[in-house]
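User: quick one, fold this
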Amino acid sequence: MDPRLLETYGGPVPRYTSYPTAPQFRDNIGPVDYAGWLAGLTPADGPVSLYLHIPYCRELCTYCGCNTKITRRYAPIAAYVADLTAEIDLVARHLTRPPAVSHVHFGGGTPNTLGAGDFLDVMGALRTAFRIGPETETAVEIDPRLLTHDMAEAMAAAGVTRVSIGVQDLNERVQRAINREQPFAVVRRAVDLLRGVGIDRINLDLIYGLPLQTIDHVLRTIDRIAALEAQRIALFGYAHVPWMKTHQRLLDGLPRADAQGRFDQAAAAALRLARYGYRRIGLDHFAVPDDALCQALDAGRLRRNFQGYTTDTAQVLLAFGASAIGELPGGYVQNAPDAGTYRRRIAGGELATVKGVPVDADDRRRRAVIERLMCDMTVDLEQFGGASSFADELARLHGMAADGLVRVDGAVVTVPEDARPLMRAVAAVFDAYLPAPGSVPVARHSQAV
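Assistant:
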């Protein structure tokens, strides 16, 4: 890619897993707002998705940007499980009827820090409160170093259908630098363990742009994991955000690829994954051709939410746990980020919402445009109010078109394949909350590539 394009368009922009994005959340949205939005849900809103955040890890991975807390004792985790099941019951009591569930997702932190019995208890609480059936997809993110046979069996018994395994990079020097020492044999053992209990939908998560990482490291990692025959692979760019995650300052003295180097790593990885038969999905996902993600892409039904690219078509996301973010027709809500405040709210019988943002018709329209660009790399603005309602945005896009970043044909906006890594910069044109180009930014985001 032309280095000038990376310099011009490769700066900080949102990831657009939501719109409005999280920096727009404000603290005048609280439990009363959430309770009202919950009570207003009707069967017309369709099935819901459920997200459960487990904010505990055994040790600190210094690259991590997640909301997590380090503990080697199980007592805090056991107490958190009690809070989580209490919140599930509390939210259910604000609903007029138990909704059907399309997807359940456990994220973290490290969800498999939970003991097998506690995991089954949480799933039991969900089944009591909601209508979870054989068609529900249940996914769990895991650290393969902590996966036990008991936990694998518990997940299978609870109906888990998909597991995402954090791999990141298999080079030993890189692993030591980011405090994530994890030999390939550990990853293979986890995959074998899961398949042995009947969980055969496997996702692997990789990262490029890490300290000390090179193109060769990325490619060698892909060559090794290819033998595991995962259905999906996510390739995320390392987000260095030490102003948000102060532990990342421990990495400041280590060399990291610049924008061109990050682009080269991502491009080389995409080519290597294509050689192994994976199709590219949106910005950073890859899947085997018969996977449901590819089918959704071909049918124009691919979605993007807080879990990345998904086949989930639910319009409602109910979120549980510290820092968890939910989405309802009325807007977004976020729980208290620290476990202490979260626990006190739930113990007092109060919803743990501490901030959020309402959405209006213009937000929904722009969200749909951004989602189609991020999923399909093209959008027809006539479907969302017409070209005349996006006159300012089209004027900016015509300027970007001169650089080859986008094509504009009347009301149809398309990101060409060679500009795919910068699609977030194109989507950002439709973000009404971002400051105007050239002004001082009010929020800090990760780099576009």
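User: anything notable?
Assistant: Residues 75-93 form the longest helix (19 residues).
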